[in-house]
């Protein structure tokens, strides 16, 4: 089954937080919401709550102003592998 992972990097935290969604549209909507909130110039303490499709009881609440990066990547449980998160150069 193909899953899409949304990964957040937080200020002063060495470990990212992540959730997985079954549908790309769901993860893209959350990504866009976070990106838009990060771009707001107002100093606020808005929270965003994220729910994982893979682990049903997994909920994460994060203050938007503590997020320093957000990324999406896909992971296939069938192959057991994942596309490498971030950016990479394929040099042949």
Summarize the structure.
By secondary structure, the protein is α+β, with helices and mostly antiparallel strands.
Total count of domains: 1
**Count of individual helical segments:** 1
Give the C-alpha Rg.
Answer: 14 Å
Low-confidence stretches: none
Mean pLDDT equals 82
CATH class term: Mainly Beta
- Report the portion of residues in β strands: 35-45%
General form? globular
**How is the CATH topology named?**
SH3 type barrels
How would you describe the overall organization of this protein?
This protein has 92 residues and is of the alpha+beta class. The chain has a single domain (2-76), classed as SH3 type barrels (Roll), CATH 2.30.30. The protein contains 1 helix and 5 strands, in the order ββαβββ. The chain has one helix spanning 24-39, and strands at 2-10, 17-21, 47-51, 59-63, 67-76. It has a 3-stranded antiparallel β-sheet with strand order 2-1-5, covered by helices on one side. The longest helix is centred in the middle third of the chain and has 16 residues, at 24-39.
């Amino acid at each position: 089954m193909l899953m899409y992972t949304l990964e957040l990097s937080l200020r002063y935290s060495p470990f990212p937080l992540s959730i997985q969604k079954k549908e790309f549209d769901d993860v893209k909507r959350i990504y866009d919401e976070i990106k838009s909130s990060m771009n707001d110039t107002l100093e606020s303490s808005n929270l965003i709550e994220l729910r994982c499709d893979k682990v049903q009881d997994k909920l994460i609440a994060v203050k938007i102003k503590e997020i320093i990066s957000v990324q999406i990547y896909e992971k296939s449980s069938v192959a057991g592998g994942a596309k490498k998160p971030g950016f990479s150069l394929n040099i042949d």
